[in-house]
Amino acid sequence: MKFGVVVFPGSNCDQDAVDTLELMGQEVVKLWHKDHDLQGCDFIILPGGFSYGDYLRTGAVARFSPIMNEVIAHANRGGYLMGICNGFQVLAEARLVPGVLLRNANQQYVCKNIYLTPQSPDALLTADLDRAAYKIPMAHGEGRYFADADTLKALNDNGQVLFRYCDETGAITEAANPNGSLENIAGVTNKGKNVFGMMPHPERAADPALGNTDGRLILDQILKAVLV
């Protein structure tokens, strides 16, 4: 499988994603935001950062980058697409996943390790995760997930919630919610379950040199796409 990591002006986690994918033994290329060619990539990643300086609204400008025409077409064909942090915000702005990401409830940028518990029983990213909690870094100022009541019901009914914030035992509590996200939601997928968005950074917890490989356990799940 060939991976493509999109680079917007202001992206700052693109190399982290590339390094992690290469550590996993995968072929990966960077895709510039002005390109109109996905270079035959099977799995596209929109990385974290501050695309276009996060002016106007996070992800709002990047959603209209030239390459997004190809990214959206790829997703609509059933191709795999993942947005991490700012990439998740871009997915939401492009209406590729339900909901929106709002300013953190405490109105502050939050950067720390948190815990995630897998939720969807059949999404590629979570179906085979068997631990109650995974320690993953987060770093964002606008990560508070929100959706209206009908959308939230559909997400829960269809198994589209990927992760919820939890404590180290896997308990989903208000105290474990770092940004005020509705129902502790930390990641969602589209109805077709080929587009994944999450606010925490698994690529920052994938190298043993960093002392935490919980993120690698999550990212390893995407390699199952080769077998689909």
From TrEMBL:
One of its GO terms (molecular function) is phosphoribosylformylglycinamidine synthase activity. Pfam families: GATase_5 (PF13507). Pathway: Purine metabolism; IMP biosynthesis via de novo pathway; 5-amino-1-(5-phospho-D-ribosyl)imidazole from N(2)-formyl-N(1)-(5-phospho-D-ribosyl)glycinamide: step 1/2. Keywords: ATP-binding, Cytoplasm, Glutamine amidotransferase, Hydrolase, Ligase, Nucleotide-binding, Purine biosynthesis. Its main location: cytoplasm. The keyword Transport does not apply. Part of the phosphoribosylformylglycinamidine synthase complex involved in the purines biosynthetic pathway. Catalyzes the ATP-dependent conversion of formylglycinamide ribonucleotide (FGAR) and glutamine to yield formylglycinamidine ribonucleotide (FGAM) and glutamate. The FGAM synthase complex is composed of three subunits. PurQ produces an ammonia molecule by converting glutamine to glutamate. PurL transfers the ammonia molecule to FGAR to form FGAM in an ATP-dependent manner. This is Phosphoribosylformylglycinamidine synthase subunit PurQ. The gene is purQ.
